[in-house]
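step=predict obj=phosphoribosylformylglycinamidine synthase n=301
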Amino acid sequence: SIRDNKESADSELSLIKEGYSGLFAKDSFVDPDVSSFNIKSSKPKVAILREQGVNGQMEMAAAFHLAGFEAEDVHMQDLLDGSKNINNFNGMAVCGGFSYGDVLGAGGGWSKTILYNSKIKDQFEEFFQKDSTFTLGVCNGCQMLSNIKAIIPGADAWPRFIKNYSDQFEARLVQVEIKNSNSVLLDSMNGWQVPIASAHGEGRTLFKNNKQVQSLISSNQIAMQFIDSSGQPTEKYPLNPNGSIDGITGITAAKGRVTIMMPHPERVFRTSQFSWKPDSWKEFSPWMQIFVNAKLFSDGC
């Protein structure tokens, strides 16, 4: 078809000849007792941050709520008019969607709301500086945070996220491996290879040079990679839906308190959200561990 990228279409067709064996799961996840997280009357607070065009806030709030957080809806307008302050929260989840319709590039308009307003910029800088806070950026939130990396300590080598190599919006379950990074949200998940929901049009990493990639590798800041059915990082479409180098799709800041990723863990934290799952999984999928880790981190601060 004239609308398709020929190389991507050929790559997808070739999987048939190569005998691709499909999705799989290798993890040591155990269903948490979420009832124990909600016994305490005093709970850590997480800001479910959104902007015009964002659509992933409900699933994100649900996951954090089950993990024992007080999840509060925070629109950027709340910060602009002073009715809320991001520094009144233990954590921040920057949600996915299409802020400002991506007309300034994915996450571009959202990031400029922060960078070009000194009051808001100062709030975010203060939040990122505090050792007691965590941040999760997913999809559009990942793109937005990459655009404000100048005010995030230890994010100097982060890439930009540009249009998928296929030239199309890609929505599918993909296979990823969680790497040995310093992310507080991915603690204890090193080496897990599990499916996850992916849905974006601009998820391909763009680094200035290879030194940036090597810097992230050497400092354990690569958090997640797309992999093939043999468990190896891949750039092959559609196993890698956007064409990112080395399959890189999740990154953390140097201290591990800010983690960004293009896939959507909040869309698949319950097994009922999957179109396929292994029989060993019960009520929750391994992605629930991210939200449990956030709770453990907040309780320890």
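step=describe
Residues 220 and 266 are 24 Å apart (CA to CA).
step=end
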